[in-house]
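Sanity check record (used in CI):
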Amino acid sequence: MSSGSEPTLAAGLQERAARALPAEHVERLGGWWLRHAPGCAWWVGTVLPHGIADGPGELAARVTEVERYYADRGAQARFQITARAAPEGLDELLAERGYRRHGLMSLRAARTCRVLERAESGSPCLRLEERPTRAWFETWHAVSGTDPDPRGEWELLRRALALSAYACVLAGGEVVAVGRAVVDTGWAGVFGMATRARARGRGAARGVLAALARWAEANGADHMYLQVERDNAAAVRLYEGMGFGEVSGYHYRVAT
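Expected output for GNAT superfamily N-acetyltransferase:
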C-alpha cells in the first residue's frame, strides 16, 4: 500500500484506532470526532476532522466550536491532520490561528498473510492474553509511557471492549517485549509495541508481531494496520520488513 491510497481508507483506519484507544469522552461535530482523554497520552484526545466543511467560513466556525468544547473541559484543542482525509484548507487555517505542526507520523497497513509469510520460525517464548496483565502493562509503561502516573492509561485499556490480544515475550521468566492487537471489521490494529533495551535486536518485536498476526488471522482479520513515528528508523525498518506499507502520512496541529 502506498501514499496514493484512497483517503477514505486512511480515515477508516484512524477511526478504528480511535475505537481501539477509546477516549473518556467522544462527541461528533459534523463527522468530526472530538475526543477528550484526561490522564492519557495527549494524542488519544486529538480531534479527527474527517467530515467535510462547506467553505472557509464554516470551517472557521467549526474550529471555533471545537476550541470551545476543549476550553470548557480545561484542555487545549489538538488536531490530527491526515493528507487528503482532512477538509481542504484546515491545515492552513490552523497554522494561521497559531497552531504549530507537531509529529510526523506514518499510517501503515499489510495483509495479515503477508506478515505471517515474513515471520521467522523459532519465535521466542510468547504468552497471549485477552486482557492486559500487570506485567504486560508495566513493560509497556517502562518503555513507552509518557506520564509518570499510569492510572489514566490503565483505565483506557479497561474501557477498550473490542476483541483484543495482549502479547508478551518472556526471557528468563520476565516480560521483555509486548504488543497489542484489536480486531475491528476485518482489520487488526497493532498498538503498544515496546521492547526493553536489553532484549532489542534479538527478534522479540518480530515475535510479537507474528503472534498478533496469527491471532488476527484466527479472528477474521485479513488486514493489519499500525501507526509509527516517521523518525523512528528502527521501528520503520521492522514494520517494512514485516510487510507494512504506508497508507498515508499525517501530523498534528497543537495550539501554542
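The first strand starts at residue 25 and ends at 29. If this sentence no longer matches the regenerated C-alpha cells, the check is flagged for review.
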